[in-house]
Each structure stands twice: as C-alpha cells, then as structure tokens.
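thought: fold this chain, then report.
action: predict
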Amino acid sequence: MELNARAAIGVADSPFKILSRLINRAFIREHAIQIAYVAAGAILFVTFLFATFPYADAISGVLQPMGLRLGSRESGISFPIGIKMTGVSLDSVIDGQAVFQSDQIRITPSLLSMLIGSPGVKVHADAYGGKLELRARRSGDATSLSFSGSDLHLERYTAMRALGLNLGGTFSGDGDLLVSQQGVATDHGEINLTAADALFRLFPGSPPIKIGDLIATIKLDKGKLTLEKMESHGGDLTISGRGVIELEPNLPDSVVAIKFKLETTAVARAQLGILLNFLPHPPNATPYFIHGTLGAPALS
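observation:
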C-alpha cells in the first residue's frame, strides 16, 4: 500500500519540485517591491512608446507612394493605445476623388515595423457594412500592404457607381501588395476575392442579373496583372475565365488578353435581350477572347 501511495505522488511531488516552489515563493516575497517597480516601469515604457508614436508621419509615409491622402471629420485617442477617426475619406492626390470611405477607423502602431525601424500602422475599419483590417508600412520608396476584409457590400461603394458600374453583392477577400512610387512596373502582390449573391444592373433601377457566388485570384508582378482564376456559380450568368493585362502608365493603353466562357439562363437572356446579339456567338461552352487595349478592347 505504501508503494502505491508513492507511485500516486509521482514526480510532481518529488523533493526537487517542492524545494523549487519554496525557493520561488521566497524570492517573490523578498523582492516584491523590486518586481513591482520593474513591472510598473515596463508598463510606463510601453505606454510612452505608443503615446509618442508618430502616427501622422507613419500614415503620410505609407500613403505617399500610392498617391493618396487621408482626411477625417474628427480624431482622438483610442484606449488603451492608438487613435480613432470618424468620417474618414481616403482621396486621390491627383483628382481628389474618394477611393475609400469609412464611418470609423481605429489606427494602432505595428510593433513589428517599429522593431525593424520602419514605422507602420494597423487599421481596423467599419466600411460598407463590413469590416476591413489593414497593415501598412513604408518599405524604401514603396508601401507594403497586407489586408483582409469581410462582408463588404459592393453597392455601397460610391466610387464604383461613379464609373457607371452597378454592381452588388457581399464581398470578402485578402491580399498582400507592394506599391511603389516608381510605377506599376515595380509593383507586385496577390489578391484573393470571394463574393456571395453577386449581381449587376445594366443601369440604375433596372432588374438585377444574378452572378451568384464568385471567386477570383489576381496576381500583380512587374507590370503584369494576371487573372489566374475567376469562376461564378448559382446565378443567371455562369462565368469562368483567366488572362493577363499588361499595365501601362496610361491605363487605357494597357494591353488585354483574357479568355472566358459565358453561359446564361432564360432569365438572363430575357433581360440582356438584344445585347447578346452583339456577341460573336451565342453564350455556350465555346470561349470568348478579349484583346486589344483597355481603352479600345475587342471581343472575338
């Protein structure tokens, strides 16, 4: 019976373990004040570090290579660290057009970027009915971006409507980009997108044409934008395609080479009507080919 009791106690109650715990407790009791001072000092140091973080310089630094500027209605401290901005607009420096808007964003320092001597920021935004998280830091004369978004309602994106694109649906995605001041020839990255209940309208107020669920993978490298995959399912239109766009500084001069397949339901054929007659052949398993330039594309 004695042997069974010792076996039950095991290594956890060995003399070495018991002595170790007693020493640790004695050390803490004897140095309680010093430990408290060290902890308080560490907290104060971290607080000072975040309080003196150059938010304005960091934000300006990451936006400059992209030709963007940030404006807001109000801003203030966000507990425990960071700043909060409301009525936010991200505008193009060239033409002043808003490329992003948010009711509220929270900006905090990026610890990793601070350690490597390149101050960066993390942004948490409420936008277009969903959430967007972004990490950005300056990398030489470029901006390094990492982002993820969920439940973004495309119909609320006013910049899209301004281009005459009447799109809708709930979009999510993530990606990494490096955007340089030297132009698209040095930019690179990857974007993954998904959409649920995607749709479009020929013009505002017209009946919607359903695209359904959509997935797409886009890569950018040395001025070449590659559509590696694009597929839709469950809508009035079924689309699948891939191809490349050779980007030029003047975007309309960019060369396009995209092959895609298009199939339609009776609903889509009824709503698109005469527009389908302008296609080289009726929508079926035979692919279409978009070529030429963005400014003057051709379809065959």
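thought: worth noting. The first helix runs from residue 2 to 9.
final: tokens above.
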